[in-house]
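## retry 2 of 3
previous attempt timed out at serialization; input unchanged, resubmitting
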Amino acid sequence: MSPDAKPVRKDVARNRALLLASAKVVFAEQGLDATLDDIAKHAGVGTGTAYRHFANKQEIAAEVLGQASESMTQDALDALAIDDPWLGITTFFETIMGRAAVNRGLHESLAIPRASHEVLVRQQLVDSVTTLFARAKAAGVIRADADPTDAGVILSMLVPVFDMAAVTSPDLWRRYLWLLLDGLRATDEPALPVTAMPVESIGAALSATKRRR
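## retry succeeded, writing output
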């Protein structure tokens, strides 16, 4: 702390921590349509207090979803620790989707890569997933033209299945995840007809799918 910096009062730090903890719960239950007022109510603080800490819902979502990005990066690193490259790939996807299945905010965030919370394009996550895909390619278990950015698209494609699962089976996403993962497997089929999108474009592309929904 610099000589001119003022120490953060304990009550201020406590309120911020309460708001962040409540944001995780509220976004998980209500999705990203929840308001800052909803979060303040859950935290047991006034709306004015919430707005003194965060300018808007997007700002607090950025912090919460930034933590989700870190979790996804760890998921990729954990998958790399699995000796079997194919099992590593499938475990990575199943871990993320299993968490998203019970957390509305997280599964909605998979298709909301705004600048403040670009879950899928954080560099550390990109690097980890790139390594995961490179290892699987080297082992010959996924197709040679698979691209790490395909991971983001696969995750985004599964988001609507969570809504369908609400009226059928909560595990419905597993069926469609495996159908999509089969498309990653190494095969004797011709090369894919279109190249993967560049990593710098995936944010805008996924954001467009959210607007259409």
